[in-house]
Design brief:
By secondary structure, this protein is α+β, with helices and mostly antiparallel strands. It has one domain. 29% of the residues lie in helices and 33% in strands. It contains 2 helices and 5 strands. Strands 1-2-3-4-5 form a 5-stranded antiparallel sheet, with helices on one face.
Length: 86
């Protein structure tokens, strides 16, 4: 999931978020560092957490998954079908 996701994010003008290393991966929009995409393991809830910027809105959407497989399917959908370049 990581290599293919990274390629899609780079094509949508996102770069590696070097300031946030507490995640499995984290990217920020090259033109607007406030727009960030993160994927992490949440120890408190013992679930995978995925956060991404909503299109045309200054807020992020956050959702949780029990399994890596569920998260992977959702991440692919968001990167392929939803997320717009800024």
């Amino acid at each position: 999931m990581y290599a293919s996701s990274e390629k899609k994010l780079l094509r949508k003008n996102f770069v590696d978020n070097m300031f946030n290393k507490n995640n499995l991966w984290s990217y920020m929009d090259r033109c607007d560092f406030g727009r960030q995409i993160t994927f992490k393991w949440d120890k408190k809830y013992e679930k995978y957490c995925f956060s991404f910027p909503m299109n045309k809105i200054k807020y992020n959407y956050v959702t949780y998954f029990d399994t890596h497989r569920e998260a992977e399917e959702y991440v692919k959908f968001i990167l392929n079908e939803y997320l717009e370049s800024n």
